[in-house]
Design brief:
It is an enzyme of class 3 (hydrolase). With about 300 residues, the protein is of the alpha/beta class. It contains 12 helices and 16 strands. Helix 8 runs parallel beside helix 10. It is globular. The structure holds zinc ion.
C-alpha cells in the first residue's frame, strides 16, 4: 500500500500562492483500491506530475467545503468515470461537500454525482465495504459539517484529522490509528483559530501513539519555520516517528505492521524541466479596483 502526497500546502495563502502544492493525498492499493483524499487546486495536474493515473481511482473523499480540499473533485470524478461514461466509484464526504449545508457547498454538481455511489458521513457514522471500512471523525472548523476520516482494511488503520482545532476528545475519534495524518497549519507558538499548530499535534500524537505520524497542510508561517524541524521536535518529545510531508512524497506501508518499517520515496517530478511561472509583485490592487468601479 502506498500513501502519496500531491501537495503538502494548505490554508488560503499557501493555496493562492502555491508556495506548496495543494493536491491532497492518495492511498493506492488499499484492499486493491485507489482513493484520492481532499483534491484541492492542482490535484489533477499533480497526479500526472508525480506519475499517478487519475483514471485508476475508485473513490474520492472530500472532508469539507473549503477550496483547498475540493476544487479538483469534479474533474477527478470525470477521470474515475472515464469522462462520465461509466457507472463506477465512490464519492464520500461531508454533508456540505455532497449536498450542501447552510452556506457551505455543495462541492460536487448533481451531474458529477450521478454515476457514482454518494456517501455522506458525519462524525458518528461508519460504512463497511468488502475489504475495508470508513468512519467519519469529528472536526471543529469553519464548515460545521466538516469531518475527518479513519479508513481500516483490517490490517492497518489510517486516520486523517483534516482541518480541525485540537479538542479534548479528538484522540478518541482517531483511536488505534497506525498512521496518523494531520493538518498542522502553524508552527509552535503561532496558533490560529480552527486549526492545529505543532504543540497541538504533539499532544495528539502522544495520546494516540500511532506507528507513524505525518504532518501536512502547511500554512505560510510553518513553511517559514521549516516543517521538518517541527516534526523532528515532536519525534524527540514523543519517541514516535514523525514526518513533515513534502510535495511528491510517497510512503510504502507494506511492512509497517510487520516490523514497523516504512519506505520513504521522493516521486520523480515529471515537470522538472519546466521553469514554471514567475510572480509579479508590482500589481497595484487599488488602482485596478478603480478601473473596475462603475460610475
Ligand atoms: Zn484546509
Amino acid at each position: 500500500m502506498d500513501l502519496s502526497f500531491l501537495g503538502s500546502g494548505g490554508g488560503r495563502f499557501t493555496t493562492i500562492s502555491q508556495k506548496r502544492m495543494t493536491g491532497g493525498f492518495r492511498i493506492d492499493d488499499l484492499a486493491g483500491l485507489n482513493f484520492h483524499f481532499d483534491p484541492g487546486p492542482g490535484a489533477l495536474v499533480r497526479s500526472y506530475q508525480f506519475g499517478l493515473n487519475p483514471s485508476s481511482l475508485d473513490g474520492i473523499f472530500i472532508s469539507h467545503a473549503h477550496t483547498d480540499h475540493y476544487t479538483d473533485g469534479e474533474i477527478l470524478i470525470e477521470a474515475m468515470t472515464r469522462g462520465m461514461t461509466k457507472e463506477t466509484g465512490l464519492i464520500i464526504g461531508s454533508k456540505s461537500a455532497i449536498d450542501g449545508y447552510e452556506k457551505w457547498g455543495p462541492c460536487i454538481s448533481k451531474y458529477h454525482k450521478s454515476l457514482s455511489s454518494n456517501i455522506i458521513l458525519d462524525s458518528n457514522s461508519k460504512r463497511s465495504f468488502e475489504g475495508f471500512s470508513i468512519k467519519g471523525t469529528k472536526t471543529i472548523h469553519g464548515d460545521p459539517s466538516g469531518i475527518g476520516f479513519q479508513i481500516d482494511d483490517g490490517n492497518l488503520k489510517i486516520s486523517y484529522t483534516s482541518d480541525t482545532k485540537y479538542f479534548d476528545d479528538l484522540s478518541e475519534y482517531h483511536k488505534n490509528a497506525d498512521i496518523l495524518i494531520a493538518s498542522v497549519l502553524r508552527p509552535a507558538g503561532r496558533r490560529i483559530r480552527g486549526h492545529m499548530g505543532s504543540e497541538d499535534f504533539l499532544k495528539l500524537v502522544e495520546e494516540i501513539q500511532p506507528k507513524l505520524a505525518i504532518m501536512t497542510h502547511f500554512g505560510f508561517k510553518i513553511i517559514q519555520a521549516n516543517p521538518q524541524k517541527e516534526a523532528d521536535f515532536i519525534q524527540e518529545e514523543t519517541g514516535i516517528d514523525t514526518i513533515a510531508a513534502f510535495d511528491g512524497m510517497r510512503i510504502n506501508l507494506d511492512n509497517i505492521n510487520l516490523d514497523g518499517s516504512y519506505e520513504l520515496i521522493h516521486l520523480n517530478d515529471r515537470f522538472k524541466h519546466n521553469n514554471g511561472f514567475k510572480h509579479s509583485n508590482n500589481r497595484n490592487i487599488d488602482n485596478k479596483q478603480k478601473k473596475l468601479d462603475s460610475y
